[in-house]
Design a protein that fits this description.
about 70 residues; 4 helices; about 55% helix; globular; QSregVF_b; Cytoplasmic protein
C-alpha cells in the first residue's frame, strides 16, 4: 500500500457500474465483497478497490476519517 492511496480513496470516483460517481471510500461493503469474489479490475482502480475492501473487511474504515477533514 502506498500512503497516497488512502487519499485517493476519498477523491477517486467509481467510473462505472451501479455505484458510478460514488467515492471509492463510500462504496458499500457488499459491493467490495463482490469484487473480492469475482476479481478486482486491473490497474490502479483494482488496487484501490482491493485496499478499500481490506479496510472495510477488517473494520478499519475509521482510518479514513481524519483524512476527510
Amino acid at each position: 500500500m502506498k500512503p497516497e492511496h488512502l487519499q485517493l480513496l476519498l477523491t477517486r470516483e467509481m467510473p462505472y457500474g451501479k455505484h458510478k460517481g460514488r467515492k471509492l471510500a463510500d462504496l458499500p461493503g457488499h459491493y467490495l465483497g463482490w469484487f473480492a469474489r469475482e476479481g478486482f479490475p486491473r490497474g490502479e482502480l483494482g488496487e484501490l478497490l482491493a485496499l478499500m475492501y481490506e479496510l472495510d473487511h477488517n473494520a478499519l474504515r475509521g482510518l479514513l476519517d481524519p483524512l476527510r477533514r
